[in-house]
Amino acid sequence: MIRTRAGYCGGATPAPTYRSMGDHTETISVDYDPAVISLEELLDHFWEAHNCERNHPGRQYRNVVFHRDERQKTLIEASRDRQAEKLGLSPEAVRTHIEPVTPFTYAEGYHQNYLLTRHSEIRSFLEEVYPDPKDFADSAVATRLNAWLGWGRDIDADLAREELETFGLPERLAGRVRATLS
Hints:
Layout: E1 3-9, E2 25-31, H1 39-48, E3 64-67, H2 70-87, E4 97-100, E5 105-106, H3 120-129, H4 133-138, H5 140-150, H6 157-164, H7 171-181
Helix pairs in contact: 1-2, 6-7
């Protein structure tokens, strides 16, 4: 994963915000390197971490995967069908929507890389480096640290420690990250 961004998609309401979302859905935008992970593999990870048998009745929190073109739609549907089979369900029993993407609107700054709020000194440093909220949201460094410090699942700690040295964090902050990765 290169970066993720929190935002709103799937609706037509102009300029959605958390307090005035209109017909949009809270979502994340994912940038990835297909030379490192294929869309099929990324979708497999998504379905494994996702409960596809339920869906929220409102638009704000509904489960949806957006596609940019027919190729992506076909891959998403095939991955949904594999997950349904794995769970002993019919594809129709999967409650996750598959829809064409609409324009993505960035969520407010405090929603971006949210798990870093548990590490306020690191987040504050990154917000100084990336003072524009969009730049902070687009930061691959913030995304990586958010994942490592907030989620930590399936991380290659040795690779993370090696990558950490390229981030330019002050040593006291890099040390905190290293301690978490141990």
